[in-house]
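User: I want to check something. If I give you two sequences, will you return the structure for each one separately, not as a complex?

Assistant: Yes, each is folded on its own. Here is the first sequence with its structure:
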Amino acid sequence: MAFEHVKLRTFDGQEYGPVSMQELIRWHAEGRVPHWATVIDVHTGERRPVRDFPALVIPPPPLSNTPAATSPTQQHAINHLIPTGNSSSLVAYYCGIFGVIPCLSPVLGPIALLFGISGLSVAKKINVGRTHSLVGIIAGSLEILLSIAILIAIIVVEINE
């Protein structure tokens, strides 16, 4: 019978085996058989793609002891880098950053300040987003002051003309 003992050849030319077809199916269940690999019959030398074997095409079941894609520690670090749990602090941060563009300062400065204050109160509860909120508050305040200074300078110039 064909394909009782086989070798597995990967795209880069590496060969694994010879092993029984049952062992190859176990490898597939462990996620060790690439879908683009080739199965070679040890006795006849016949080559067939993995997709020709129904037992190797079905996605393997998830392993019970497989760790999650990101560990809780990684999620915690990511959430401090980008505080997805505190949207007010994100809005404050981005409004504060983009408010540096002079024509946007009068609009984004107050938004950054208000959302920064809101984000700071949320950050006290959930301990995420404090830095982003502070950036929004500081940048928003500076943008408001700059907008007021520019407005005063325009008024003074108009009065003196």
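And separately, the second sequence with its own structure:
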Amino acid sequence: MIKKKENEAELQEANEAKLQEAKTLNDKEIQEAKRLAEEYKETMQRIQAEFENFQKRTEKEMQNFRVMANARILEEFLPLVDSLGEGIKEAEKSNNKEMKKGFVLIHNQLSQIMEKNGVKQIKSVGEKFDHNFHDCMLTVNEDGKDDEILEEFQKGYTLNGKILRPAKVKVNKVK
């Protein structure tokens, strides 16, 4: 019976050692699992941020593409606006009121469409020459302010603040 008790005590001790060893292994596995979970969480957050940045960048590129496509289309309408302006002048010269009225109506409608899409006419006559907005086609020496624009040969336009076409002008250069 003493041997049996000794065997039971040894068995009990062995079982407790195995239990302690299993618990230690289990704690290590839990710590490793926590570390992996944190690593996966960080990776997922980084990938999510990269994807959000990709979405924003793609949207911005699409917006820029739309703006550029619109700029090209609107730029092609500028000669039509010029022609309508010339038509109005010719109708005035020939004193044809009906023709002038028709040209003015079309010119106004087209101008409204252009303005609605961000196209604005560059102010020129009487303004100070600015090489960012004006192309100097001719300089003269007349009474008045230096670098003052005296005449506009062709209207200039901006699209959302960027030059679509510079105005072609005559500039006063006082000597």
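Because they were folded independently, the notes below concern the second chain alone. The chain has a mean pLDDT of 88. The radius of gyration is 40 Å.
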